[in-house]
Amino acid sequence: MATTPPDAQERETAPHTSPSLGAKTTPNEAPVAPPTVKLDRANPEFLAGAHAIYSGLRAQGPVVRVSFGSNLTEKARAAGAPEHQAQGASGDEWLFVTRYDEVTEALLDERIASDFRTGMTPAQSERAVAAMPEEFRPIAHSLIMLDPPDHTRLRKLVQPNFTARAMDALKPRIQRLVDELLDKAERAAAERGETAPERRMEFVEAFAYPLPVQVISDLLGIPVEDQPQVHVWAERFLQSDPQQYMTNQAARAGMMDFTRYLEGLFERKRREPTEDMISQMVHAQEDGDRLSSQELLSMVFILFIAGHITTVNLLGNGVVALLKHPEQHARFLADPAGMAKGMVEETLRYWGPVDFLGSPRIVKEDLELGGVHIPKGSKLSVGLASANWDPQRFENPDAYDISRPDAHRNIAFGKGIHVCIGAPLARLEAQIAFETLFRRFPKLRLAESADSLRLGVGAAMRGFKHIPVLF
Ligand code: HEM
């Protein structure tokens, strides 16, 4: 993991001043725009070195131009209304918010829309959606890409499932799942004839992946017997490289099968409701017209997909970060119950699962951000990881410190009306997981050096693909 280069750190501790978009001026010289930095999600090396890049971008200014390579929503926007192509940045260039204060400000600003169809006529909007692959449309119509009033109405429907009280009720179920997965790993090792502390486990496959997937499947009401098939579809989608998604027939077919499966499940829940979120939503739909069929599908899709790989990565990132820092590891082992919360918050800050928002936000009117003029129509992303390592906000940001007093101020879950609805659930799962894992297996350690572990590729999701451990 690259840390901030010393020269950038020096620049960063100086007060931030940057009046114009990415332009550097010296006396007698016209402004020179620095070269656009590519945040290359498709490059397997990108995430490992990303913090050094973010540090350079923060030093450039609070809002800079970057290029990401295009993605599906952006292509759809171009197909719907080419004349709406971004202002303030051209082609596949976006504006990128680099620092904590401005990232927070941008996420709270009502003039910045999440709907990629913003500013389009109904006909353009239709064209844009039609340009998307059919199986991707449920995500395009989901909470994450809607603005008020639709966003407000839909979010209200599911919010009660993620309150503190709802989380308390879930605790025993999550604890049981954690215990079962660890029991299973012990049994598998015993069957291979391994004994403690030399037993092997592939942490992602045996634990980090199945835990959140099972929790969200249960919450939604996906019957246990269907879960293995659903996981195959979701995995094909999530493992597919976003740049190659359109040519990945297996991923695309899997998404279509998942959609058809869900439509069938809604019918079943309509006839025989059970105690779960899908039944609740189907009921809400029949109660009035609060939720269209498209919206129901989109909601289930986004709840299932958004909580998937993110929480998997939080669990993996926490284990690797802790094991990579022996003094923090020792501190945690001395009091797993007392330190679990701190470890979760610091992991979210240090190696949060989402580096930056992957689909463009659209600026609805001219505005100022951190003293920088942002023109109407700009495509904008915010750097969550960059903000979480902003030295103006967090002291020694590149140090992993599970007792950091302000780690909970991280913005790994975003901010404002779109702040992650599943954050309380992800936090709870991770706290129970870390506490139980290190309490039961205090000798748990990496089977390979931390530096040899590979981060996954694509969609700005930070997480290790495989984490072989010994316990
Ligand atoms: C560590 C785990 C997680 C991380 C880091 C994470 C991160 C995020 C972020 C950054 C956003 C804001 C996106 C934006 O502003 O456009 C978001 C939104 C969302 N997340 Fe999560 N998430 C996690 C877990 C979950 C879980 C477990 C669920 C489902 C149960 C979930 C469901 C959602 C949904 C539905 C939204 C959209 C909310 C809205 O637009 O109003 N997430 N998440």
UniProtKB/TrEMBL annotation:
PANTHER family assigned: CYTOCHROME P450 YJIB-RELATED, P450, PUTATIVE (EUROFUNG)-RELATED
UniProt feature, compositional bias: Polar residues: 15-28
Signal sequence, renumbered to the chain: none
Annotated keywords: Heme, Iron, Metal-binding, Monooxygenase, Oxidoreductase
Protein name, as recorded: Cytochrome P450 hydroxylase
Gene3D superfamilies per UniProt: Cytochrome P450
GO molecular function: heme binding; iron ion binding; monooxygenase activity; oxidoreductase activity, acting on paired donors, with incorporation or reduction of molecular oxygen
Pfam families: p450
Family statement drawn from the similarity comment of this UniProt entry: Belongs to the cytochrome P450 family.
Highest taxon listed in the record's lineage: Bacteria
Annotated segments matching region Disordered: 1-35
Organism the protein comes from: Cystobacter fuscus (strain ATCC 25194 / DSM 2262 / NBRC 100088 / M29)
